[in-house]
Amino acid sequence: MEIAEELARQQKAISVAEFFEKNRQILGFDSAPRALITCVKEAVDNSLDACEDAGILPDIFVQIKRDGDLFTIIEEDNGPGIVKAEVPRVFAKLLYGSRFHCLRQSRGQQGIGISAGVLYSQLTSGKPTRITSKIGPGRPATYLEVMINTAKNEPEILDEREIEWERARGTRVEMEMEGSYVRSRRQSVYSYLKNVATVNPHARITLVEPDGTIEVFERAVETLPKKAFEIQPHPHGMELGGLIKLLRYTERKKLRAFLKETFSAIGNITAQEICQISGLDGDLPPQEIGHDQAKRLLSAFKAVKVKSPPIDCLSPIGESLLRAGLVKEYRLDFLATATRPVAVYSGNPFLVEVCLAYGGELSSEGRVEILRFANRVPLIYQQGACAIAHAIEGITWKNYSLSQPGGGLPVGPAVILVHVASTNIPFTSESKDAIADMPEILGEIDLALKEVGRKLRRYLSRQSALSERREKEEIIGRILPRISRKLAEILEMQEPEIGPVVAKIMGNVLICRHVSRENGLTSVRIDVENHGDLSRSFKLHDLLGQEAISVDPPARKAQIKDGYDYNWKLALKSGERATICYKIPTDDAPFSAPIVEGLSEEMVTGAKVILS
Amino acid sequence: MSEPAERMIAGAAEEKIMGLARSLYGQFQDGIVPHISLPTRTKANIEYDKDEEVWVYGSQETLRSVKTVRGAKSLLKTVHLADLLIKEHLRNNRGSTLREIYYISENWDIAKFNEQSESDRLIEDLEIVTSLQREDFHVRPEEDGAAIFGPLHIREKTRRGERDIHCQDEVGEAGYQIPFNVDNIEFLGCDAKMVMAVETGGMYARLIENGFDEEYDAILVHLKGQPARSTRRLIRRLNAELGLPVTVFTDGDPWSYRIFASVAYGAIKSAHLSEHLVTPTAKFLGVQPSDIVDYNLSTDKLTDKDLQALRSELSDPRFDSDYWKRQIQLQIDLKRKAEQQAFAGKGLDFVTKEYLPARLGELGLA
C-alpha cells in the first residue's frame, strides 16, 4: 500500500462535540471560576431571549450550591418553556439552534452555548444535566436527564418523566461541574449578573450564592424592549463569496427579482439601477451568473445609494433604559448617552449605544471602568482584545476633560458603557469575549464616544465655573478681611477698604464716591469702573436733598419727595471707567449710597441695586 | 556684637518687614489686587553672577496674588508670619526654630501651616523680599550636628559667654559642633593648609582615625548629607577669610554631586543667599565616576531615580562644564555608583595613603 493510501485510511470526520471536548477554552471554559460564569451566562442568555420572544417580563433565578469541589448551578426562568421533543437537542447537541440562520438581533447566535455547558458538566462531574420545562399552566412539567454522546454529537436521554412543578411555565436547568466561586469586583457570577441587570432593566434577577447570600437585582421598568424583527441581508458590505452562494441557491428565475427579494433596502428602481451599472440583463437567471459578472454586481452594490438597513431588526436598549439601568446600580453626578443610527458592516446591520457616567461614588483613582455589551450580553473577559476598548483608547480624552496619562484608557471617576447590537456580532472567538476590530464598528463607537465626551466636557466646564465662583466667595468672605485686619494690626492703622479689590476679583462694576468739603461747597466725584469681562449698561441714580451744580456729565433730574433723583445712563465696556462730578453749595450735605438700576446685585460693588 | 548694635539690626529688620506690610496695605487702598512677586525658584531660573562668581536667581518672577485661594491663603500666612516676627521676635529679642514656627501657627485658624516645608518656604520668601537672612529675624534651624575637626582655634559667642576652643586639641573625637549662627564665631588662629568637606560620617571618622588632618594640615568638615546653611557659611568663611582651599569628598552618585553643587555653586532653594553661603573655588575631589573605572571600585547598580537625577543634572546650568558633562555621561554609560566607603575594600589606609594624595596632587593641593 502507498503511504498516501495508508494515511487516507486514518482520516476520519471529527464530531464537533469531540472537537470542543478537547478545545474547551474556545468556548470559555479555560479556568475553574470562568467555567462557572460561562455556564450561568449561557443559561441566563437563553432565558432572556426566550422570555423576550414570548413577550414575558423575565424573572430569573440563579442558585450556586457547593459540595466539596463540585458546584451545582440551578437556573430557572418564567419563559415559555420548551416542548418535550426539543429539549434533548436544545441542551445536548452542539450547533443546534433557532437563530443561526436568521438575521435578527438575539443573545444566542450559534446554538453552542448551553450545550457546551452540558458537555463541560458531564466531563467534570460525570453526571447528566437535569432539565425541567413546562409550557403552560395546567399542563404537566417534563423532567429530563440528558448527556451528549460526543462521538456522534447527539443527545442521550437517561431519564424522562412527568412531574409536578409549581411554576405556571418556564424552564429549569440544573448542572453539576468542577468550578470555583469568587466574588471579586469584576469577572464573577455576581458582577456578571449585575451587568446583565444594568442593560436589562426589564428583568428581575435573583442570585443565591453558595454561602446563602441572596442578591436581588430588581426590575427598574415594566416594559419589554422593542422586539427585533428578522430581516434580509443588506447589499452594503456583502462579500463576493456570500453573493455567489446566494446567486447559486436562489429559487428566483430572474436577476431583477433576485435582487429585490433577497436583499433588504432594494426595490424595483434600485434593482434596475444595479443591473444598469453592472451591465447585466435583469432577466438573466441568477444561477447562470459567472464569477466576473458577480464581481461587477458587487461593485454595482457599492456604487448605488441604498437605504440603511431597517432598524427594526435591532433592539437597542434606548437612552431612558440605559439611564435607568445605570442609575439603579451606581450613584452618579452626571450621565450622558448617545445612540448612533443603524450602520452596516459586511452586510450586517449594527448599532452602537454609549453611556458615560461620571462622579458620585465612582472612584477617581485609576482608569475608568468599562462595561462592554454585545446584544445586551455583558462581555467580561479579554477587554484588551475588544474593539470597544480599542475605540476608547483611540480617543484623545484630554479634549473631553479626562486625563489619559501615557495613552490607553482614560483616568477618572467615570464608567463608560458601550453596547453593540447587531444581527451578527463579529466576535474574535467562539467564547464571545471580545468584539473584532471591524473598521465600521470602531468608527461608530468612536462617534458615539465623542458625542458623550462633548456632553461631559460641557458639564465639567460648567462645574468648574461654579467652583471658581465658590473659590472667589471663599477669598472674599474669609481670607481678604483677615489679611486687611492683620495688616491694620501690624501697621496700627485703620483697616483698609477692601471693596475695590473685591470688585476686581469678582469682575464686578465698582462704584466709589469721593467727597471733599471746603468753603461752603461739597465737591463730589463718583468713579464707576467695569471690572467684568463683558460690557455693562445700566442706570446710576443718586438721591440728593438739594439741587446740584456743575453736573458733569449732564444728568436727568426728577423731583422726588425729599429732594431730587439725579440719574445717568452708563454703558461701560470691559475695563472701562467713567467719572461723574457735581457740586452742592453747602458743606454738610448728607449722602446715601448710589443706586444702580439694571444689573443684578452680585455684579455690583459699592452701590445699592434696584430692579428696573 | 554690642547690645545697641543688635538693637539696630533688629530695628532695620523690623522696618523692612513693615515695608512689606505697608506695600500690601497700599495695594488695598489703591484698589490693586494685593500681590507679592518673587523670583521663580527653579533650575530654569538660576544664572551665573560673574562678579560674585556664584549662581543667583534670574529675572523670571512668580506672582502670588489673592486672585486664587492658594495665593490668598499664602498671603494671609505671610502677613501672620510678619506679625509674629515683628511683635514676638524683633521687639522682644526672642527667637524660634523653624519647627517652632510651624507649631506656633496652630493658633492661626485658616492661616495655619499645613506642614513645616510651607512655613520654611514662606520664611525664604521673606528673606528674598527683605534681602535679609532668617537669622536677622531670629529664626534658626534645628541643630543638625554637622561638625569640624582640625587645626583651627576659634572663639564662639554663646548665650552663656564667650568660649575659646581649639578644634583639634580641645574637642572629642566627633569634633566641634557647628552652631546655627556661624557669624558668632571669630577665628583666632589657624595652622591648616586646606579644608576638606566630607559627606558621610563613616569617612569623616576614618580620616580622623588615620590622622589625615595632622598629616595634611587639613580642617575636616562633616557635611552630614546635604549641608545646612551654617555648614556652608562656615566653609565659605574659612575660604574667604583664611584663604584656605576647599575640596569636597562625597559618594559617587547624582545626589552627592548636588551636595558638592550646593557648596560650590549654591542651592536652587537658597540662591538669594548664594553670596553668603557659596564657595565658588571649591573643588570636587571624588568619588568621580572615572574613579570607579580607574580604581575598580565595588559598586551598586543605578536605580531609575538615580538615572533620572543624572539626566536632570545634564540640563542643570550649574553642571554645564566639560568636566561634569564627561563624568555624568560616563556614569550613565556605566550604570553604576560607588560609596566613599568602597575604598575600604582595598585596605583601611588606602584612602588616606593612596587615593586622597593622588587626587590632591591632581588638583595641585599636595
Question: What does this 3D model show about the protein?
Answer:
The complex is a heterodimer of chains A (612) and B (366). Chain A has 612 residues and is α+β, with helices and mostly antiparallel strands. Chain A is built from 14 helices and 24 strands. Chain A has four domains: 16-217, 2-Layer Sandwich (Heat Shock Protein 90); 235-303, Helicase, Ruva Protein, domain 3, CATH 1.10.8; 319-461, Ribosomal Protein S5, domain 2 (2-Layer Sandwich); 499-610, Immunoglobulin-like, CATH 2.60.40.2960. In chain A, 31% of the residues lie in helices and 26% in strands. The longest helix of chain A is centred in the C-terminal third of the chain and has 53 residues, at 439-491. Chain A is elongated and about 135 Å long. Chain B is globular, with a radius of gyration of 22 Å. The longest helix of chain B has 27 residues, at 3-29. Chain B has two domains: 3-140, Arc Repressor Mutant, subunit A (Orthogonal Bundle), CATH 1.10.10.10; 147-362, Dna Topoisomerase Vi A Subunit, Chain: A, domain 2. In chain B, helix 1 runs antiparallel to helix 2 (69-90) and helix 11 runs antiparallel to helix 12. In chain B, strands 10-7-13-12-14-15 form a six-stranded mixed β-sheet, with helices on both faces. Chain B has a three-stranded antiparallel β-sheet with strand order 9-8-11, with no helix packed on it. In chain B, strands 1-4 form a two-stranded antiparallel ribbon. Chain B contains 13 helices and 17 strands. The interface between A and B is medium-sized, with 25 and 28 residues.
Question: Descriptors for this entry?
Answer:
heterodimer, A: 612 residues, alpha+beta, Heat Shock Protein 90, Helicase, Ruva Protein, domain 3, Ribosomal Protein S5, domain 2, 4 domains, 31% helix, elongated, B: 366 residues, alpha/beta, Arc Repressor Mutant, subunit A, 2 domains, six-stranded mixed beta sheet, 13 helices
Task: Write a compact overview of the structure shown.
The complex is a heterodimer of chains A (612) and B (366). By secondary structure, chain A is α+β, with helices and mostly antiparallel strands. Chain A has helices at residues 3-10, 16-22, 32-54, 87-92, 113-125, 189-199, 240-249, 255-262, 268-278, 291-303, 319-329, 387-393, 439-491, 499-506; strands at 59-67, 70-77, 129-134, 141-149, 154-163, 170-178, 204-208, 214-217, 334-339, 343-345, 348-358, 369-374, 377-379, 414-422, 509-518, 521-530, 536-544, 549-552, 556-560, 563-572, 577-584, 595-597, 604-605, 608-610.
